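Two entries, shown back to back:
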Amino acid sequence: MKEEKRTILVTGAAGFIGFHVSKRLLERGDKVVGIDNLNPYYDVQLKKRRLAILQDFNQFVFYREDIEDLDAVRTIFEKHSPGIVCNLAAQAGVRYSLEDPFSYQKSNLEGFLNLLELARAQGVKNFVYASSSSVYGNNKKTPFSVDDRVDTPVSLYAATKKANELMAHAYNHLYGIPCTGLRYFTVYGPWGRPDMALFLFTDAILHNRPINVYNYGKMRRDFTYIDDIVDGTLAALDRPVAYEIFNLGNSNSVELMEFIGVLEEELGKKAEKNMMPIQPGDVPETSADIEKTRKLLGFSPKTPVEVGIRNFVAWYREYFRV
């Protein structure tokens, strides 16, 4: 790999997936230019703790900026000339998109367009970005395949992710920028997001609070461990293609009640459960068809939920000294 291609711009570097991807890139010797606005959507202290780990690497450079600030991001591009862009910055969360839709417009649409424009201007060799399993909406056919139609999103978050895939397609078609979209399926693990089920459940159970179980527990999720997600993301960064979409999932859908059961066992404590109806924007099931990802990226998830939950709980206990 030429030196110019080894400078990788990672947006959302202090986020859950961004942190893990950056750390793995740094451990293997790449230079990482990280951008993150450290927004207060969830605990900023957690983001700063992740960042502190990355800042121990001397080939890591960090900028606290918004990707929707075109001038600020252009300055970073011009200074570092990244050969590869890994765009993991986005306003996350399906449910929050009902509360603050405009934050999704700014980060997920305007910010994404800024990065595509700068990638075009700088002649970037590979543009990899986070899409989401939420683009499948209420698809009845499972497992979800990248060949399925995905034009019926059930949340604004999902609509912005589908828009990203279309924008990337246009830029690949017009300017030849190699673009890869990764549809992530319910990512969990150490240093995870506090708004995600595993974190919420663990916190509530350990502090004797009830947990909210939506759709009366009749939910299935393709829970995918963070290390497997990082493997797939790095494979995409290392293999530029013209334009592709890949599912990154565990390809083994787990019932929510089973997931909670594994967590209860790991914590040695039963959860008090509030059984609730499904929430607006939520889907009852996600399940990934990863045949194409296996074939083209060599992606092979290895972590069963029992191991993933055990690793998360160990991290949680250490981090919060519980």
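entry 2 starts here
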Amino acid sequence: MNPQELDDTLIEPAAAETPAPSESLDDENRLKPEFVRRVKEALEKGETDAVYDMVEPLHPADIADLFELVDQDERLSLARAINDQMSVEVIAELNDYVRELLVEELPAGIIADIAEQLETDDAVAMIEDLDEADQQAVLAELEPEDRAAIETALSYPEESAGRLMSRDFIAVPEHMTVGGLIDYLRENRQLATEFWEVFIVDARHHPLGTCALSWILRAPRDIALTDVMKRDQTLIPVTMDQEEVALRFQKYALISAAVIDGSGRLVGQITVDDVVHIIQEEASEDILRLSGAGDGDINEPVLLTVRTRLTWLVVNLGTAIVASSVVGLFQGAIAHFALLAVLMPIVSGMGGNAGTQTLAVVVRALATNQLTSSNTVRMIGRELRIAMANGASLGLMIGLGVGLLFSNPLLGAVIGLAMVINNIVAGLAGILVPVTLDRLRVDPAVSSAVFVTMATDVMGFFSFLGLAVLSGLAG
């Protein structure tokens, strides 16, 4: 860390109230290009007071977005200029890479002050990006209770419920009445400030059920909580992957859910606002991985982006060489009938598109648990029928077109049949490749596209050129 590079007043640890937007900065004008340009010009001129005045009316989420819109070398200057507006709400909303840049420049004591005011999951997200030495320095500055909570969360696997959960929840014993609960909520100022339901636990702190606030407010005071609580609840194991957590929230329309440890004790809760972020993150991640683009974050360091993309581009280069070697087997046929070289990319290209369509559907089905071992065979049959129908339709169209255009019915028949064969291969590869990778516990979103493309290219060239040779079309 380089704490000297920033003033101690860079971030005001105390949570600031969200300022009301001023009349001079309405929703339609905030963060528009003209506004961002004026902020950047003020930063370049060193007019920190002007920057402060322009940023002051913004919502914390808009301030966080502003950091992404200015150049990377201007972000520290912006943080210095707005100093006490850098509240914990802004820190929580920052992009991961932007937050990492700013946090790395802060003294351990300032980071600890911020972490103590954040929700546990947000504090963990901020601290987990630090290297081991900086993590220990920050943890040493925390209050014992906060340190224990964050260390426990960091001990869980990345992208698990333990990292995602919040420890700010309300749990009460099963013997309490509705009136007793209401009095308890009113008298204890240290309780969570935002919650939708109260967890009822037994003497071992195992969750027995939940009481929604609406039930509590409408029930008579002398009624026992066990008489009004909802016993049917969705419990989230602390080690569950965040993608599975999101699927449960989506499937069962949850607002919040209890998180339990290995012994079944209630240790935290996950709320729907956290899950919405995860759903968006996981969906974007799968789409980007299908293209080999890595995280796809425009704030990601250039060298990291290059390394991620180049890795898969090199793999694609290898598969392209394999496909070209198939073409090399038919050099004589192509030399004898040059028109084959003009038409063969159509077969492989259409097969690649068909395979990508199937692959996208299958990867999504795997991610959402729609495709499991119980319906894999049915799914294969379905995609095979679709591939045959599409292949026949495309084969008929391209066959008739080529036959008429070049006055060569045999050439039309060859390319039409090749189109049918390659579409069938594309459909099968589009489902078998990701399913096989999933069974091998390899993320199908990462590796499938390369193998599907190779299969369609190889089979497209081989089927078209092979049929041309067998039919005598190419000598």
